[in-house]
């Protein structure tokens, strides 16, 4: 995961979408599973960001990244 100086929710969501697209995490996994992609110094800032936007660590990653849009349906 890219090291972001200051996390903003849209950048964080983009990073998580990239992890989902690569298959590193699943949409149905809990948000707290993302902790393995951050070091111990970064994770508290991520937790603060998630709390600021009312995301629960026990919530699903799909709640964080939102619905996907398929162009060829």
TrEMBL record:
Matching InterPro entries: DUF4327
Pfam families per UniProt: DUF4327 (PF14217)
Record's protein name: DUF4327 domain-containing protein
